[in-house]
Amino acid sequence: MDTPHPSARTALVVGASGITGSALVEQLTDQNWDVLALSRTPVPGSTARHLSADLRSPGSLAAALAEERPTHVFFTAWSRQATEKENIEVNAGMVRNLLVALAHAPVEHVALMTGLKHYLGPFEAYGQGTMPDTPFREEEPRLPVDNFYYAQEDELWAAAERQGFRWSVHRAHTVIGHAVGNAMNMGLTLAAQAAICRETGRPFVFPGSETQWNSLTDMTDAGLLAEHMVWAATEEAAGNEAYNVVNGDVFRWRRMWPALAAWFGLEWEGFQGAPRPLEEQMRGTEDVWARIVEQHGLVEPDLARVASWWHTDADLGRPIEVVADMSKSRLAGFTGYRRTEDCFTRLFERYRAERVIP
């Protein structure tokens, strides 16, 4: 089948206002796709057509998508629940509901974003039990634990068999990119920590484990992840596969942390005997943030929409090395690359220009 010109392609981005979704909307728009942006709120500054629907409601999705004819679907949404059983019910259900609602559409490819918890286990069993050696490779078998990523994959594969589209799964490490109000946003969380440290005269204290401080690790830039998802969706030979997706460089936090502190003009402290979680370091700093917002005329007064302390603590507190292998993507033709330090500093500059951080 001939690949259509981009102007004949219509992309449906699900979770369009999130870190990865907004990067996808930006890239696809720049490439002259017709873009449908499905999210609770419109993507700021985007020309994409906004759609609003409840992913947990088949009826809501059916009504919102009845007249739409996307050719490519990019699923980046998730809903955090109290237990993994609930995560499975809700998040696998959202994938299922969406794809059922698109049964009438000429969908050629569905790209699903998941993550390295595919290898690490879910939050309630995070890093426990026997895991594969690093760097993680896509051919590793599933862990013998419940995991909503596995359930989402199963829903994707069942719909692909039923509806005849190609698919891809994109297993990202910690994603850093531009969004406000996202539940997992290390970039903005560290920027908020730095602003509070500067306001209160505190050093910039690494919150994580000794292993994370000293071991090699990697990350995923949202722009690179968007490139990867579009690549897999449009290169026919890349379809029907699961891929790891990380920036391509590796680093140690013991080097990265001083570099980030220097960008903010802060003194810093590394690992000292035990983790010092941000949920403890930053407890009760809402008034400090309010003062910073007033002094600098910032646009988001709600610290809870800026910083996700719990998520950064979970990532940096892991007692294991986490590195993903990109060989499968490289051999299939994907050449995208980012230097993680540059990703952080470009993101901080953008947040500062938009008056999200001082």
TrEMBL record:
Listed CDD domains: 5beta-POR_like_SDR_a
Domain PRISE-like Rossmann-fold per the UniProt entry, residue ranges: 70-358
Protein's name in the database: NAD-dependent epimerase/dehydratase family protein
Higher taxonomy: Bacteria, Bacillati, Actinomycetota, Actinomycetes, Micrococcales
